[in-house]
Write a structure and sequence with these properties.
heterodimer, A: 166 residues, alpha+beta, 60s Ribosomal Protein L30, Chain: A, five-stranded mixed sheet, 2 helices, 17% helix, 33% strand, B: 208 residues, Chemotaxis protein chec, 8 strands, globular
């Protein structure tokens, strides 16, 4: 009898991405204004999870970590997925996060960054011809996002609400 | 000064920052003690350069529920202040402020949020007063904004909102706690190297 393969849960930190294959899972904890993007190739059951912090790297002088930005991180993860045998044309995208976490008024705080992260992520995916199959974005709650590479299902955990699958 | 002070600030400067933190937070702790009519203890402040992830790990697990009040400092030393209370502490804090029986507050409603913001206001005021009178620098706090949710979501969002997205965040961090009813709060002051230069200069020190 063959022992069951241990399913690994691989954690993705902020401004980082990871690529893995079935039966493992990818998880990122506590998305606020950040956007979690999963890309999944159902044919070969390979996928990636990117934790985006900011929309646009061109607005910064020092870009030390490309995965921090939607415009650089998404192409980077796609390249890595292709290296693992995925085809960009088969990739299914799911988005979570982009919330507005803070209540109160302060014009100098950048409070709409969540929405901007979502907009930029959609824009880049569209430009690259990748379809978004599900979204759980906006609102004012933090989210944890888990991609099951066995079937491409994404689980969303929030405080005070039942677990949701998208 | 070169392009990065980053973690190359000498021990002397780090000690100065630590001492400033000590005095400022000490003053803030006294205000909180007066507000609550309780004894408030504080840990010796730590001064360090951390990444965003390290800053979050200092407080707890990324999915832990916390209340975070944050405000900006305007004036000579632009920066940001954060107060982070874990769920239990935030609720106890509200009980104490409202003069309620311990355990009465079960969730942070609008009133509770205002109470936590008010604590942040008062603590920040005393902290900045202490530093202003030491340095004669002008520092004005803005009105706090608040979030009550997963630690990872709240802390990352507040730092991004304040524009602190670099790998190296200078952080003066301490824990305030009240033994009997166990209120534990983290205090962070985040600022930039240009502000530090001004701060040291005001204290008669020069950076090179």
């Amino acid at each position: 009898m063959q022992p069951a393969k241990v399913i690994k849960e691989i954690q993705v930190g902020i401004a980082d991405y990871k690529v893995a294959a079935a039966p493992d899972r990818l998880i990122t904890l506590g998305l606020g204004s950040c956007v979690g993007l999963t890309l999944y190739d159902p044919r070969i059951k390979v996928g990636g999870l990117l934790h985006i912090m900011l929309p646009d790297s061109t607005q910064f002088r020092n870009v030390s970590k490309p995965a921090k930005y939607a415009d650089l991180g998404i192409p980077l993860m796609i390249k890595e997925l292709e290296r693992r045998g995925a085809a960009a044309s088969r990739l299914q995208a799911k988005l979570a996060g982009g919330a507005q976490m803070f209540s109160g008024k302060d014009d100098k705080f950048i409070l709409n960054i969540g929405q901007r992260n979502v907009d930029m992520t959609r824009k880049i995916l569209k430009a690259m011809g990748i379809k978004i199959t599900a979204e759980e974005v906006g609102g004012n709650r933090g989210r944890t996002m888990i991609l099951d590479l066995a079937n491409g299902m994404v689980t969303i955990r929030t405080i005070g609400s039942p677990i949701k699958e998208i | 000064m070169g392009d990065s002070v980053d973690n190359k600030l000498s021990d002397t400067y780090m000690d100065v920052l630590k001492e400033i933190g000590n005095i400022g937070i000490g003053n803030a702790a006294t205000s909180l003690a007066q507000m609550l009519d309780k004894r408030i203890d504080m840990e010796v402040p730590q001064t360090k350069f951390v990444t965003l992830e390290e800053a979050m790990n200092l407080v707890g697990g990324l999915e832990e529920t916390v209340a975070c009040a944050t405000l900006r400092i305007e004036g000579d030393i632009p920066g940001q202040i954060l107060f982070v209370f874990n769920e239990k502490s935030a609720l106890h804090l509200v009980d104490m402020l409202m003069g309620l029986e311990k355990g009465s507050t079960k969730q942070l409603d609008d009133m509770g949020e205002s109470a936590v913001k008010e604590v942040a206001n008062v603590l920040t005021g005393s902290f900045l007063n202490a530093i202003s009178s030491m340095t004669q620098l002008n520092m004005v706090p803005t009105v706090p904004i608040l979030a009550y949710d997963m630690l990872g979501a709240v802390l990352s969002t507040s730092l991004i909102a304040g524009g602190y997205i670099e790998e190296n965040i200078l952080m003066i961090e301490t824990v305030l706690f009240e033994k009997q009813d166990y209120i534990k709060g983290h205090f962070f002051l985040i600022t930039e190297e240009l502000s530090l230069e001004k701060l040291f200069k005001a204290l008669g020190l020069t950076m090179n």
